[in-house]
Amino acid sequence: MATAQKFFNEIEQELGVGMVPRLFKLLEDQPVLLGHIWGQFRMVVLQGSLPRIIKEMVGLVIATATHCDYIRVVHLHSLSIQGVDERTLKLFREGNYTATELSSATRAALRFADSSAETRAAYVTEAWPESRAQTAKALAETDLDEVETAELVLTVALFEQLCTIANLLVLDPSQP
User: Fold this and answer.
1) Structure pTM?
2) pLDDT in tens, the chain (176 residues)
3) Fewer CB near the terminus (10 Å): N or C of the chain?
């Protein structure tokens, strides 16, 4: 069985941000759960057809929608390390995902993420059918192929899960 330290070494190396995020460190005494959460993150965000940067930007949209400052801070830091320019990061900090420097495909993916967050919030309201239709339209407007579409949807779902965990644990964004 893999140890937490083995996963921590992988996380630090593969994320390339010089640290193991606290969300993972909290699972040190639960290496099976750590392996599961890390495996999901690794497969969805670090691998696949869609670029990691787009996936992390999607994570920022979801973090903003779910008021998850912890995930916002971690992924803003990661995007800065990956070379996203300061102007775009500033816009993201302000909740503006329409930076003209982003490709139309990236902007469409971010619109879908935003719409999907609104749809999830609408599940318990009468607005749900309309919201769901808008989200389906936003997904179609991404013009992604079937594999990329699945990756985008899985990225949204993963970040919703991570934000739920971080919010329920009340993780302090000043201690990423």
Assistant:
1) 0.90
2) 789 999 999 999 998 877 899 999 999 999 999 999 999 999 999 999 999 999 999 999 999 999 999 999 999 999 999 999 899 998 888 888 877 788 999 999 999 999 988 877 766 677 777 888 898 999 999 999 999 999 999 999 999 999 999 999 999 999 98
3) N
Hunting for tokens 């992988």 — which residue is that? 10
**DSSP output for 19-50:** S--HHHHTTTT-HHHHHHHHHHHIIIIISSSS
- What 3-state class would DSSP assign to 62? helix
Determine the length of the chain: 176
Please give the DSSP secondary-structure letter assigned to residue 123.
Answer: T
| 124's tokens | 């318990």
Domains of the chain (ranges; CATH) run 48-168 (1.20.1290.10)
